[in-house]
What we know:
mainly alpha
Amino acid sequence: MTPEEIAIRKDRISGNVEGLAKKVENLPPKFAKKAVRAMASGGTKSLPFLKKILRKNKRPEIRQQAAQTMAQTLQKTARKAKPLEKKMTDALVEAVLSDKAPEVRASAASALGQVYDYSNMASLLKAMDDESLAVRRRAFEAVSRIYGRRYEFNPNSASSKRQIVIQAIAADWEAHKKHVGEYHDRRRKPTEP
């Protein structure tokens, strides 16, 4: 184990999320990504740090890892994170729509699908027409996961053909979003002991 890995492990075990976040800024990418992954062990208290990394870190591979770790953390802490979830998913939406790096946009789209963020379906539909094939694919997978339906969508087709499918999904979504939202909300509610 390298000294960097030992320091990351020590912070992970002690729950020092802030220490891990500081390490991300100064470590080489290989170790910075490990530090970001280790932040998941901090549960909900890691979310604001992950959000900051997603929005402000200069390295795309680190922002990409932050999006993935944020989704994993939101999934694991769904019931506890509910008050924070909107702020966190807003950061993911911002990344889907405006990050310069396609790998970050793609990871953020996947993250929204992993946490079943039905409230930002319009952003995912918009991402289905992104300039990057990877983003289009991941956005479509997220839409399918959230909605629970598969459509005939070819992310390789021309934008005009993609737009036809996107508009059909959007119209269908408008008719069913209330029911899908209720379903996902019921899944997230705490159960009685």
